[in-house]
């Protein structure tokens, strides 16, 4: 059975991979992190589209049956364009998270946190309005969260202080649901939840994307069924490729996946 393809501008998309592994343990996964050209958030829309097409072409060389865009910037700026270029099913991270937030909110007040590029695009806000125009959205950029995660600062006074400052607008607007609109942010879920309080529901886009992938593969008859009813079956194979610095990627990947990641391969040209 063919693998699932996943790509991101760097390492954050591994939160999506972790959820795919948890929900679809028998699926093979090919992951590509474009570490030579990260971050995408400061690039023009035309450049993000070009990079995305090149990344998908690389994944198609591995005969993937499905592509998951585990990058909020690409999902915000380029998803409709790249979907038009390819026949393979493609899903991004915006729609699944927005849909779940609309379903989860009790007072129709939803918060979104993300990088400056994602928040500026209004992609989550637009998608939420498509599902329910009555929902009021408060969107806040949290640019320091990504370096915190990549430096391993997941707890402590500094992280909590910054989180309180970033998340203050949500307490003022009374949101009851907040979308973690960046694939790094699930690693800060405990701090974010502590600051916002137990009454605020956090929507993990990575988890919702994996649910969406599972549903689409099932509907299309593309699920790998080799493990069904077989106690000694083989779990899925996971291959990781980057465009630069595989050692840096491997070190961070262990933090994201909770297990060592070996044999990360560098691709000389995408």
CATH architecture of the largest domain: 3-Layer(aba) Sandwich
Number of helices: 12
Fill in the CATH topology of the largest domain.
Rossmann fold
Which class of the largest domain in CATH terms? Alpha Beta
Distance between the termini: 24 Å
Question: What general outline do the C-alpha atoms trace?
Answer: globular
Stretches with pLDDT under 50, minimum 5 residues = none
* Class inferred from helices and paired strands: alpha/beta
Mean pLDDT comes to: 93
Descriptive account of the structure:
With 270 residues, this protein is α/β, with parallel strands linked by helices. It folds into two domains: 4-92 and 207-266, 3-Layer(aba) Sandwich (Rossmann fold), CATH 3.40.50; 94-205, Rossmann fold (3-Layer(aba) Sandwich). The chain contains twelve helices and ten strands. A six-stranded parallel sheet has the order 4-3-1-2-9-10, with helices on both faces. Strand 1, helix 1 (14-23) and strand 2 (29-33) form a beta-alpha-beta unit. Helix 1 packs across helix 11, helix 5 packs across helix 11 and helix 9 (157-173) packs across helix 10. The longest helix is centred in the middle third of the chain and has 17 residues, at 157-173. The relative contact order is 0.19.
């Amino acid at each position: 059975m063919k693998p699932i393809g996943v790509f991101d501008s760097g390492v954050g998309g591994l939160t999506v991979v972790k959820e795919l592994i948890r929900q679809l343990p028998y699926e093979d996964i090919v992951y590509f992190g474009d570490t030579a050209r990260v971050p995408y958030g400061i690039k023009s829309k035309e450049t993000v589209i070009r990079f995305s097409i090149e990344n998908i072409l690389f994944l198609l060389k591995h005969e993937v049956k499905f592509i998951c865009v585990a990058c909020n910037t690409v999902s915000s700026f380029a998803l409709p364009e790249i979907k038009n270029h390819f026949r393979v099913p493609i899903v991004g991270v915006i729609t699944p998270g927005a849909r779940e937030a609309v379903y989860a909110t009790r007072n129709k007040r939803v918060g979104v946190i993300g990088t400056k590029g994602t928040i500026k695009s209004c992609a989550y806000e637009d998608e939420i309005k498509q599902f329910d125009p009555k929902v009021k959205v408060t969107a806040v950029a949290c640019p320091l969260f990504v370096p915190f995660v990549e430096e391993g600062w997941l707890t402590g006074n500094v992280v909590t202080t910054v989180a309180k400052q970033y998340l203050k607008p949500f307490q003022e607007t009374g949101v009851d649901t907040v979308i973690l609109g960046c694939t790094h942010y699930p690693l800060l879920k405990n701090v974010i939840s502590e600051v916002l309080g137990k009454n605020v529901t956090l929507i993990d886009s990575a988890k919702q994307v994996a649910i969406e992938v599972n549903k689409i593969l099932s509907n299309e008859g593309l699920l790998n069924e080799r493990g069904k009813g077989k106690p000694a079956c083989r779990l899925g194979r996971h291959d990781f490729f980057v465009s630069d610095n595989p050692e840096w990627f491997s070190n961070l990947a262990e933090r994201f996946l909770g297990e060592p990641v070996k044999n990360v391969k560098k691709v000389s040209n995408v």
